[in-house]
Amino acid sequence: SQQGEEDPQALSIQEGENATMNCSYKTSINNLQWYRQNSGRGLVHLILIRSNEREKHSGRLRVTLDTSKKSSSLLITASRAADTASYFCATARSGNTGKLIFGQGTTLQVKP
Amino acid sequence: EAQVTQNPRYLITVTGKKLTVTCSQNMNHEYMSWYRQDPGLGLRQIYYSMNVEVTDKGDVPEGYKVSRKEKRNFPLILESPSPNQTSLYFCASRRGGDSSGNTIYFGEGSWLTVV
Known about the structure:
The complex is a heterodimer.
Chain A: E1 5-7, E2 10-14, E3 19-24, E4 29-37, E5 43-50, E6 55-58, E7 61-66, E8 71-76, E9 85-93, E10 100-102, E11 106-111
Chain B: E1 4-7, E2 10-13, E3 19-25, E4 31-38, E5 42-51, E6 54-57, E7 65-66, E8 76-78, E9 87-94, E10 105-106, E11 110-114
Parallel strand pairs in B: 2-11
Antiparallel strand pairs in B: 1-3, 3-8, 4-5, 4-9, 5-6, 7-8, 9-10, 9-11
């Protein structure tokens, strides 16, 4: 079964608004990563947060991690039309040899 | 430029005709992996390799084979493709074999249709 599950599955907002996507997982993790995928293209790594971190920023991206709730959120501030893409969380389990398990993704549409 | 290169990018083939999707990375990464992406199912790992001559099954290995004879290459082999293997395939690589958080680099994907 999928380790990470994103919520919502689809999100449509206006340019300039903030977009928040959530990810829940089931087992103890070493780290959690967020990836972006433009339609039909490869995934691009956005940000990684380790299990001992609670919040991380990168440009307009803000990621939080709550290990007690086994959840993470990705916030994109001041969204742009170019942010339109699918966003995936991926978890690396504790003690694992390196396998990342991906959620099904959130499809974000930012309307100009 | 750091790259993971897959070929072919697009392929339509017939049931039972063996095919190979090649994957090559230029970053001297130890870890390489194959995923397939299907609507509603997300990315699922097919096989992975921790280093040369070290491969292991992922979540959906049935119908696939891999080899890792050289560090840079990790081909995916479909010995007898079937229509349920129609999918978008991604190769990925990463430095190191642990889950410390090294970035995974993905190829651009290979669209495979089996008729």
